[in-house]
Amino acid sequence: MNCPVAKILAVHTGSREAINADSDTAKGLESQLLLARGTRIMLTANLWTAVGLVNGSMGTVQDIIFNDRGPPCLPTVAFISFDSYEGLTITASDSTEVVLIVPI
């Protein structure tokens, strides 16, 4: 992809079982997330059903903003252009319509 890749590690809060859980046990949550500009993503939760941000929605990462510490901490926000979205957007400098997604 010829661009930086952010490797974001999961933060486990709880028992030792959570730290050692595989993706199936953790209901699809992975121990790490790789993000980069241009990466195709799929939502795995219903964020805002009224405008189409639902489980299975596909989009493309346009940019990732981190706090001062940078990766591997969670990003502050990811700018995503979704294939099917009917809500408000922000227009990026390249005229792409994006939605701001914050980590949950």
Quick rundown:
This protein is mainly β and 104 residues long. Helix content is 5%, strand content 31%.
Major sheet description:
5 strands, antiparallel
- SSE succession: EHEEEEEE
- Largest beta sheet: strand ordering: 3-4-5-7-6
Query: Residue-averaged pLDDT, rounded?
Result: 81
How much of the residues is beta strand, in percent?
A: 25-35%
Quickly count the domains.
Answer: 1
Q: What is the distance, rounded to the nearest whole angstrom, between the alpha carbons of the first and last residues?
A: 27 Å
Radius of gyration: 15 Å
Strand-pairing-aware structural class: mainly beta
The coarse silhouette is globular
Unreliable residue runs:
none
The count of DSSP E runs of length 2 or more, i.e. the number of strands, is: 7
User: In DSSP terms, counting alpha (H) and pi (I) runs of 4 or more, how many helices?
Assistant: 1
Q: What is the helix content?
A: under 10%
Core attributes:
1 helix; 104 residues; mainly beta; two-stranded antiparallel ribbon; 5% helix; 5-stranded antiparallel β-sheet
What does this structure look like?
Helix content is 5%, strand content 31%. It has one domain. With 104 residues, it is mostly beta strands.
Write the layout of secondary structure elements.
Elements: E1 6-9, H1 16-20, E2 32-35, E3 40-42, E4 58-65, E5 77-82, E6 90-91, E7 97-101
Antiparallel strand pairs: 1-2, 3-4, 4-5, 5-7, 6-7
